[in-house]
Design goal:
- Two copies of one chain form a homodimer.
- By secondary structure, chain A is mainly alpha-helical.
- In chain A, 57% of the residues lie in helices and 5% in strands.
- Chain A has three domains: 189 residues, Clc chloride channel; 254 residues, Clc chloride channel; 177 residues, no CATH class.
- A three-stranded mixed β-sheet of chain A has the order 3-5-6. A three-stranded mixed β-sheet of chain A has the order 8-9-10. Chain A has a two-stranded antiparallel ribbon with strand order 1-2.
- In chain A, strand 8, helix 30 and strand 9 form a beta-alpha-beta unit.
- Chain A is elongated.
- The interface between A and B is large, with 64 and 64 residues.
């Protein structure tokens, strides 16, 4: 009907539910956080300085201990913002446990705790991870059910749908789902989840899609764009419906006036200084963070990690109370604040609040909105001298300085939490400070500190993350401040430019550098690769098979390596090569067959160890070999089948099984498949003597019907940058390097490319090890 | 200094000037158009029905005749919107004269005329083309100066810059410019120009960048994004500065209220119908247009083309006056209209205006703003019955119907003009009509017809162009209606979905299909390619050279083909091939050398005609061959140089000359280079007997030092979809197809891929011819 198959419908269903459920998570996240914060502030209100400090610390400690314990003992993948790991996943890496249901729950609860404990962490980064987890869980729901694992709430959604007049039964539905969870589809859904998450966090659907495109995804197509778009829209819409009182944007401010062209031009130098300084702050934060990471020894003990977080809560509480007491100014409540429950009375008189304590101890989200709105409730030309901003200049300066320190210390703890909100708060306090100073200095200039706060927040974000277009759209959609579009763009450009001269990479890139076991490939080849050839960066000593290979050898190779693909070489006498490895002469298959008949399996593999080159005929995957072994798809040395007869249906089944091999398991099945475990389960060889062990010496597998006959290859004298391009643009996992005669001389994988780029201009933090030849 | 070389600086300068100059063009475009329209309306005011009609027609005819004459006699590439051809250029096609200075001027003047003649055409599409031309002209300015061609205003800008304290002299500057105009850089600048153009047209910098990304560009990188971003921002900023009275967005409306969640939910069905119908209208326009294109015989005579356009003006004038007289309603002027000069009195009393005549005959831009604002100047609960919308329901319905017809007739004429503005006007009139009906029917429902007009305009745009994210951002930025974001997104999704079921392609894609000589490659491989192999779509009979080739043969091949790249085959005895072409046995080079010594050049080429296969050694480009021939870089049959000595400097010069071959000429130099013209100029062979003709029989060229030794190849049994991916993602011009022994069996070019996809689901309009084997 209309070209829509059940397949498409199921995919659309996944997208739609991803959007809605991510939106619900965001709603509950903000509700829970708000409720806990309010309760906590209620408890400490009207208490004395010291009691309040203790209570704040105590409540915070309980919260963060719970969060850290969850992370440490249950779902380690949920620490931090998680954006970087999701990026790495979308780039093509496999990150174990990143997108599991446990991670989702732990991330959600942990973020609630961390944000309500007033740690310098925000819910936006985690929302990205939560969205990705939701998408992943929904697609894998079927596998979970079959595994008999945790009962998942999403089952309801599916089964209720299948009952609602659509007449495909459960079995059929399963089949459809079975088909949709291919690797690339899964990545697409995760991208949609990322968009939904960020769009829910900021109330910015277009910004969410662009973030997904600019930062998170390495592959992008029109289909992915539509999927992200729908998911992001639905998540935002869900929030709006659930949360009647919510503004359309999460950080929408109120009532700033639009500025005249004249004012823009006059204030241009100040705005540039403002954004430039903000970019500096952002870059400084990145630097502090990397430095602290090096200084701070990595705690391995769980208890120490928990104590670390409790220490940070102590610090926040102590500094907040101390400076609130020592330096905070008492100010009368502006209109509307008391109704919202914003503003801490602290040590002030009735009807007043302490500005510094309020900034430190109450909800960051509220503080940001207040800072963005500074300057709206007064007109410039009336009673110039009597204007009292809600936060004093001194308090703002003090707060910005201390907060930068706290942010840096807070990053890298074993607790979920993102950097968006703290960056915005840091920028807003700096911008407000600068705007108030300018206002004092040039009272006639119609300066709105709130605008400066918005632009500085944008600048800090640009300095920290180095995004461009997505950031502009996020800020504009989030604040609904479309009248300041030009200012926002200016801030992004200036801050990026300034921060680029401090150090080259945004926080995501630096973090990916730091994580050793992830090979992130850049969109554009690093400079260093332009001077190298493919030959220089490839791993040599590729192991492969003849077209008809003894089973024992296949088992041997699969046990001794962890490769996912093996080249298949042609059955011809190899010509002499001058540039070959150390592998002596290569015996032809015929000779090996002779050997196989006369000696044990171990001898064969020794003799064939040298088979590291030959004319490339095709590539066979580990999963395909596993299926062939499992089916006992054997033949003799001349390719005649043994113990089975050919039927077309069987061959079709075999092909289907090969294609869907990974889809029947979780992502981490890839890891398991690379170990010896599935081989042991097959009970084929004598190493694990079972009752069904066969005599393998006469058994072969004919790889020709199954291998990929047209693998993409590059010549060895091709430039390494070209290899990078080919690899990344086509989404390859391995790229064989051949010489002019189509003989394999090496292989390039993600790891090789990453290592080869190791000394490039962009890798400032540490030098990578040279690629290890396997 | 700070890692910025002169190179980067020059590039940045080009980007900046592109943005500013495109902005200036937009300013003047809108000023001229406004002035002419105002003058015209002043002339026909207070005249009788018939005189007014004649005058309107007469003035319009003069204007459009001028525009069409410019297009027909001076710059044919400036007809239509030009967006499609710019897209084709950015996709990798060469379109002659598309980006020349003449085209720019003709486009600018033509658009002014067409828009002010009240034809159903807008200035947005042409702005894209203008932006692209500006970018191209700026980059090629240097070549123009050297050619002694038209004196260009941009020279001033450059020379004034070079004087301003920067101490590189003119010569050095030239060298820098010489380096920046490589093909890929040029595409980057043109992309930036496109962004600047669209951003200037709508006042939407982010939307401009996204349009460039989503619609126009086939290649996209972070660097391109930044370049587009800066150009787009500057062009918008320029407009704002120049045009003090301008709103921030070009189609910004005034004073609609934000809607409650409740209202959104209640009106959801109406909104969906609204957007769906709008999508239908858009798709219907596309269909009409394609149909009319088939029906209407293509006029070849210039005069006929001009008469055609005059006929359209006649139609507009006639229909406008007739319906204004017959069906138009007289309404009292709302507040503010008379000051703006909007509203035609026509046959009405003093202080009143005729709504239908106003819509037909006055500025479209103003009408759109008025339509978007319907519903703002009244509150629903007060005096329900007395509300009089500025346009009556009947007039709106009539207008929308007739306008759809006029738009369809107008498309494809030989006059510059875009589709954005007419589509918006069509959508706005439909949406306003629907909104007013709903309002009559459900007076208590708080329905704002202006909102419906905005969303319907979005829907028509989505139906016509099938963009997604860029459209949302364009509309939101253009109207500044960020409160209606969710509605806009909804409209885009619904309209796209509806329109997709009418026919698959947007107007750009259909138009690209129609243009026969452009091979546009889609982002994703067409379905049909998945079932084919590379062998099935490649062109066979590739001609190539041996590594040491007689000059006469090179000349022969370059004269008889128009290829830009030739494979170079290894000097080895080819093995027997079973799947070879009809080429019999292939004589080895040694045998050919014998032939060459004993017979004439013509004999050699006949004997070597068979040389269409062999083991691939490398690829040599036509431009490289031209340079080698020009330099008389000859050798004898064994590779010893003749008539020259090797020096390192000479070799370096040669390499530089090869690399910069095309940069020293305009884009269309590629066409010339593919003809015999440059060969004739070299005066090498006897065909054009000159005084310097050499005896070529003993002269050879050794291609080995210059050829690309590592061309990317694919195996012949690779899937055609894979070939498409490789080709597009890596931006190739030719892709050699080899067999397992690395022998060339064919070549895939842009043309082959396009033809192979010819019968796919998306190519509805006509069947392509099968690929012609050269």
């Amino acid at each position: 009907l209309y070209g829509y198959t059940g397949h498409t419908l199921a995919k659309m269903l996944v997208t739609v539910s991803t959007g809605i459920i991510t939106g619900l998570f965001a709603v509950f996240l903000s509700k829970f956080t708000g409720a806990i914060t309010e309760w906590k502030l209620g408890v400490i209100e009207d208490k004395s300085w010291f009691v309040s400090f203790l209570l704040f610390w105590l409540i915070g400690s309980v919260l963060v201990s719970a969060a850290t314990a969850l992370v440490q003992y249950w779902a380690p993948a949920s620490a931090g913002a998680g954006v970087t790991l999701v990026m790495a996943y979308l780039n093509g890496n496999h990150v174990p446990n990143l997108l599991r249901f446990e991670t989702l729950i732990s991330k959600f609860l942990g973020t609630v705790c961390a944000v309500s404990a007033a740690l310098p962490m925000g819910p936006e980064g985690p929302m990205v991870h939560i969205g990705a987890c939701v998408a992943s869980c929904i697609t894998y729901i079927e596998c979970k059910c079959m595994d008999g694992g945790i009962f998942s709430i999403f089952t309801n959604c599916f089964s209720c749908f299948s009952r609602r007049g659509h007449d495909f039964n459960l079995k059929e539905k399963m089949k459809i789902l079975d088909e949709i969870v291919s690797d690339s589809d899964h990545r697409e859904f995760v991208s949609a989840g990322v968009s939904a998450g960020i769009s829910a966090a900021f109330g910015a659907p277009v910004g969410g899609v662009l973030f997904s495109m600019e930062e998170a995804c390495s592959f992008w197509s029109r289909k992915t764009a539509w999927r992200c778009f729908i998911a992001a829209t639905l998540s935002t819409f869900t929030i709006q419906l659930m949360n009647r009182s919510a503004q359309h944007g999460m950080i929408a401010f109120t009532g700033l006036r639009a500025m005249e062209n004249k004012d823009w031009l006059m204030q241009l130098p100040f705005l540039i200084i403002n954004s430039g300084m903000a970019g500096l702050l952002g870059a400084a934060f990145n630097s502090f963070r990397m430095w602290l990471w090096k200084v701070r020894a990595v705690k391995t003990r769980h208890v120490l990690r928990i104590l670390e977080v409790i220490g940070l809560v102590f610090l926040v509480s102590l500094l907040g109370h101390f400076f609130g007491w020592a330096a905070g100014m008492c100010k009368p409540f502006p209109e509307g604040w008391q109704e919202e429950g914003y503003g801490l009375r602290f040590n002030c008189e009735e009807g007043q609040y302490n500005d510094l304590a309020t900034m430190f101890l109450s909800s960051q989200h509220h503080t940001i909105i207040k800072l963005f709105s500074v300057g709206h409730d007064d007109t410039v030309d009336v009673e110039e001298d009597k204007y009292t901003p809600p936060f004093s200049i001194g308090s703002l300066a003090l707060f910005a300085t201390i907060y930068l320190g706290l942010m840096s210390v807070g990053a890298g703890l074993a607790i979920p939490g993102g950097l968006f909100m703290p960056s915005i708060l840091l920028g807003a306090s700096w911008g407000c400070f600068w705007g108030l100073i300018l206002r004092l200095w040039l009272p006639a200039w119609n300066i709105m500190p709130g605008l400066y706060a918005i632009l500085a927040a944008t600048g800090v974000l640009a300095g920290v993350f180095r995004s461009a277009i997505s950031l502009v759209v996020l800020v504009v959609e989030g604040t609904r401040g479309i009248d300041y579009l030009i200012g926002v763009i200016l801030a992004v450009i200036v801050a990026n430019w300034v921060a680029h001269h401090i150090h080259h990479d945004g926080v995501y890139e630096s973090e990916l550098e730091r994580i050793g076991n992830v090979y992130m490939l850049r969109d554009e080849p690093p400079h260093r690769l332009f001077t190298l050839t493919a030959e220089a960066i490839m791993a040599t000593g590729v192991v492969g098979f003849r077209t008809i290979t003894p089973v024992s050898r296949i088992l041997e190779m699969m046990r001794t390596t962890t490769h996912n693909g093996f080249p298949v070489f042609a059955d011809e006498e190899p010509e002499d090569e001058d540039g070959g490895g150390g592998g002596g002469e290569l015996p032809s298959t015929k000779a090996l067959v002779g050997l196989a008949h006369s000696s044990s399996a171990a001898d064969i593999s020794n003799a064939e160890k040298a088979l590291t080159s030959g004319r490339l005929e095709g590539v066979i995957l580990r999963s395909q070999l596993l299926v062939l072994l499992q089916r006992r798809h054997f033949c003799d040395a001349d390719g005649r089948p043994i113990g089975r007869d050919y039927s077309e249906q069987q061959e079709l089944d075999l092909e289907t099984e090969m294609r869907t091999f990974f889809r029947r398991y979780f992502t981490h099945a890839r890891y398991i498949s690379a170990t010896a475990q599935p081989l042991d389960e097959l009970k084929l060889d004598g190493v694990h003597a079972g009752s069904t062990t066969l005599d393998l010496s006469n058994l072969y597998i004919d790889l020709r019907p199954y291998m990929n006959r047209s693998p993409l290859t590059i010549r060895k004298d091709c430039s390494a940058a070209r290899a990078h391009q080919v690899f990344l643009n086509l989404g390859l996992r391995h790229l064989l390097v051949v010489d002019a005669h189509n003989h394999v001389v090496g292989i390039i994988t993600r790891k090789d490319l990453d290592h080869a780029a190791g000394h490039g201009w962009w890798r400032m933090s540490h030098m990578a090890e040279p690629p290890q030849n396997n």
